[in-house]
Amino acid sequence: MLDTTRKITVCLSPALLPLHDIKNSIVVVIDIFRASTSMCYGIANGAEGIIPVAEVSTCAIYKDHGYLLAAERNGEVVDGFDFGNSPFSYVEEKVKGRTIVLTTTNGTKAIHLSREAKKVVIGSFLNLSILCDWLQKQKEDILLVCAGWKDNFNLEDTIFAGAVINKLKASHQKEDDASIAAETLYNCAQPDISTYLAESAHSRRLQNLGIQKDIDFCLQVDTLNVIPVLEGDRLVELKEY
């Protein structure tokens, strides 16, 4: 039976976050291509923590303190940093036992703008089911925050938000038109999400950089059983599922 006391809402862009009730919600930050995917993969591969920072200059402050520094802008690694936000940089042999300081064009900004939430967790297709199983057990309202692209709407984050809504439709009431639209988009894309997203603006940007493999990786479903959660200034693995 639908529990109409629990609401689920979608923020289609970080620019719209001031219109939403962040403080009384669990926020799921979504940046499918590629930050949230890489965060999930890095935590699954044993990273001690990931510190998301908004600016490249802030990331640089951590240099020479034993951290791995990851900085991406416009899809490319920023010169002078260890790596960007390709999931293939977050393999076990690189990140296990290490703390990563990360800044990206969209995802880390969305995290910072969501910090006043009751809890901030990270969503990707890789951890879709375990994330939804956990969300279904929570008593709070849910706000799905799409990182988008430079404050603009994008397809991949919205489709993922729709996938979450679809899995939670028995327990959470869609509260706004954005959540209805997200689920509708997901239902349209679901038979072949990869093909549906092939012409999306962000897919084309990554294809132009020669990293189709990153796109393919980010669209894998349920390969991980971890949920990154923001504790203080860093993302760590959620311990209670």
What does this structure look like?
Its cofactor is Mg(2+). Its EC number is 3.1.3.71. InterPro entries: ComB-like (IPR005238), ComB-like_sf (IPR036702). The protein has 241 residues and is of the alpha/beta class. It has a single domain, classed as putative 2-phosphosulfolactate phosphatase, CATH 3.90.1560.10. Helix content is 34%, strand content 20%. The protein has ten helices and eleven strands. Helix 6 packs across helix 7. The longest helix is centred in the C-terminal third of the chain and has 13 residues. The two termini are 22 Å apart.
Top keywords for this entry?
single chain; 241 residues; putative 2-phosphosulfolactate phosphatase; four-stranded mixed β-sheet; 10 helices; 11 strands; magnesium ion binding
